[in-house]
Design goal:
Strand 6 (163-167), helix 9 (175-180) and strand 7 (183-185) form a beta-alpha-beta unit. The protein is 44% helix and 20% strand. It has helices at 18-24, 29-40, 46-57, 62-69, 76-84, 97-106, 134-138, 155-160, 175-180, 188-200; strands at residues 4-7, 89-96, 113-121, 124-130, 145-149, 163-167, 183-185.
Length: 201
């Protein structure tokens, strides 16, 4: 079957959650890491939790954020798969458009993503204008797709996919996510092989 491949970003393509790494610079790592885990494990409403985290980072210049993000490590074999199969891949992320730009550029995916949106003023995030629902986005797809994610906010997306993959290569994932997936894969090399096998049929 001719599949498209839909990837979550944080802790799926990246080895770590992006916002806590940024927060280290301003001494808020623990607070934002704790909030992030609550969102990923479905303990709090994602939209409210996300806006709270962004509000904590608003005073940090975006140019500083981008310098940090440029050095964030990606899962090597997921990066390889996306670069080799750009026309088959999309990124759907609950992160913010302006924050993730360096990673999109690195992956050559600047025109193949869906994300939360913001207004920027004077090199700082002024406000969040849109928080996406991944399930609602994939409902509009008119093609067969494989979805890969690590958080509870990916559950709806995985359930709508022809094949839903819970990826636990970067962090421990929830029982709910595992139960919602067709497959659970624990490292990026294994995922790379699995996805290529799907392409070959």
């Amino acid at each position: 079957m001719d599949y498209k491949f839909i990837f979550d970003l944080d802790s799926t393509i990246t080895k770590e959650e992006i916002l806590p790494i940024i927060a280290k610079e301003i001494g808020l790592y623990e607070q934002i890491q704790n909030l992030t885990e609550k969102a990923m494990n479905g303990e709090e409403d994602f939209s409210t939790n996300f806006i709270n985290r962004i509000n904590m980072l608003k005073n940090m210049p975006i140019s500083n954020m981008h310098k940090i993000i440029e050095s964030i490590k990606l899962n090597e074999y997921i990066e390889k798969f996306i670069l080799e199969n750009k026309d088959r891949c999309y990124i759907i992320t609950g992160n913010l458009d302006i924050i993730i730009k360096p990673i999109l550029k690195r992956l050559n995916m600047e025109d193949r993503y869906f994300s939360c949106e913001s207004i920027v003023k004077n090199d700082k995030i002024h406000s969040v204008t849109k928080v996406i629902n991944k399930e609602h986005i994939v409902e509009k797809f008119d093609f067969n797709f494989v979805a890969i994610g690590d958080g509870d906010n990916d559950i709806g997306m995985l359930k709508k996919a022809n094949i839903g993959i819970a990826f636990s290569g970067s962090r421990e994932i929830s029982k709910r996510l595992k139960q919602s997936a067709d497959y659970v894969i624990y490292n990026d090399k294994e995922l790379y092989k699995f996805l290529n096998d799907l392409i070959r049929g």
